[in-house]
Amino acid sequence: MPMPTAALLPGRGFLAVAGDGARPFLQGLVSNDVNAVSPTRTLYAGLLTAQGKFLHDFFLAEIEGAVVLEAEGERLADLHRRLMMYRLRARVTLTDRSADWVAAALWDGDRLGLDAKPGATRAFAGGIAFADPRLGALGLRAILPRAGAAAALAGAGYAFSDAEAYDCHRLALGVTDGSRDIPVEKAFPLEFGFDDFHAVAYDKGCFVGQELTARTHNRGTIKRRIYPVTVEGPLPAPGTALHHGESEVGEMRSGRDGHGIAHLRIDAAEMAIRDGASFTAGGARITPHKTVLGGHG
């Protein structure tokens, strides 16, 4: 059995939305069903433009009675600003709690008594632990008080690694990492796994960007999607075009240590996977692999 592994993720930030109007306020804005968030369930969701383009993604958790958005730390101020634009007279407060909490990823072992149901959540060490709602193979996440987080994880039997090791783990599974992989204000989220990651509740009613997102989902018109890839040679920068012969088939997104994610034409990717073919990007050879998105376990 692999040793249960933990990594603190210092690049994450936390925005607590509290008050009587917190859930109705968020429900009309974000892509998932805020009313389903509870002490026993955490969700993954996004904030989109009115045209259905990607702005932010985050986990939605309930902590200390507030709905907490765990998001990209470096972009938390922008997320805060955009939400404040919609607040108007809503009875809510938005508080940056990044100084109080830290995120952790837990994989390769013990589930802390949680089942594999996506988003299953329990109290742990003064915070919460939850099964990653995007993909079961990712393992668990935790949001913990900064003081004592490492000691709590060590006491639960986890060996420590680093955020870079977790990055390789999620890359091998073909899972996006926010704006590192999804171009802000340019990308349609369904091309980057939002359906596979259970980020959209189509039956919840309106949210910002809902009309185009629902139309794309219902028509099944996606022609590109993300795939895990292996990289032989120098790692191409995000946005580098990938080619099959003279034809451009997509672009590279994030990568590390020979693993990466590419946004590819589905027809070209599936052909390459079937035939054992590769693409090129500068001096690198890029080989796409079958995606595991949509599966849990």
Shape: globular
- List the uncertain runs: none
Largest sheet: 6 strands, mixed
**Order of strands, widest sheet:** 8-9-10-7-1-11
What is the helical fraction, as a range of percent? 10-25%
* CATH architecture descriptor name of the largest domain: 2-Layer Sandwich
Element-level helix/strand string: EEHEEEHEEEEEHEHHEEEEHEE
Mean pLDDT: 94
Description:
It contains six helices and 17 strands. Helices cover 19% and strands 34% of the residues. It has helices spanning 22-27, 76-87, 149-155, 163-173, 210-219, 266-275; strands at residues 5-9, 12-18, 43-48, 54-63, 66-72, 93-96, 101-107, 121-124, 127-131, 140-145, 159-160, 224-232, 241-244, 247-256, 259-265, 279-281, 284-288. It is of the alpha+beta class and 297 residues long. It folds into two domains: 5-173, Probable tRNA modification gtpase trme, domain 1 (Gyrase A, domain 2); 223-297, Elongation Factor Tu (Ef-tu), domain 3 (Beta Barrel). The strands form three sheets. Strands 8-9-10-7-1-11 form a six-stranded mixed beta sheet, with helices on both faces. The protein has a six-stranded antiparallel beta sheet with strand order 13-14-15-12-17-16. The relative contact order is 0.16. The mean pLDDT is 94.
